Amino acid sequence: MSSTPPAPTPARVPSYAAVLRAPHARRTFGAGLLGRLSNGVAPLSLLLSVKAATGSYATAGTALAALGLTAVLLSPARAALVDRYGPSRALPPLVLGYATLLAVLAAVSARPGVPGAVLVVLAGAAGMTTPPLGPVTRALTRAPRRRPPGRGCWWAGSRSPSASRWRRFRRS
């Protein structure tokens, strides 16, 4: 009988538990997770509420497209706001604006016969203020680590010449 040799043990890879042990990581991760719940719920609820208000799937699809298009096209601008002012100053107005616009959109779409253009504009405005919670959460939970021997610059806070060139390139 032939037996297969044991598989080589993989190098230690940081786990989620190791990341969550970093200072303030649980709170940051929890807030980011709670804030990102609307990413899964908002599109379907927008589609159904606009369809119920207007009776048209075409108008509902247009409102959904406006939300998605403005969210995608303006994501670099929102990321620049976070880079310039930091998450603690940039995210609260974005979150407040996004939540307010979604609430106004829900209230307006509760009335049957509302013009579809109003709903499309409100959906586009909500997309403009979608907060970049996913990237901010990833950046904040990435704890600085020591560089393992023979490894490249993969940890936060790198001081290598290539990383400093990248930072200079990104800031200009």
Task: State the main characteristics.
172 residues; 9 helices; elongated
Query: How much is the radius of gyration in Å?
Result: 22 Å
Q: Please provide the ordered H/E string of secondary-structure elements.
A: HHHHHHHHH
Q: Estimate the strand proportion.
A: under 5%
Alpha carbon gap, first and last residue = 65 Å
Q: Helical proportion? A: 55-70%
User: Tell me about the biggest sheet?
Assistant: none
Q: How many beta-strand elements?
A: 0
**Which whole number gives the mean pLDDT?**
79
What does this structure look like?
The protein is mainly alpha-helical and 172 residues long. The protein contains nine helices and no strands. The protein has helices at 16-20, 25-35, 37-54, 57-73, 75-85, 87-109, 116-128, 133-141, 161-171. Helix 4 packs parallel to helix 7.
A few lines on this structure:
By secondary structure, this protein is an all-alpha fold. The chain has nine helices and no strands.
Task: Give the topology, please.
Layout: H1 16-20, H2 25-35, H3 37-54, H4 57-73, H5 75-85, H6 87-109, H7 116-128, H8 133-141, H9 161-171
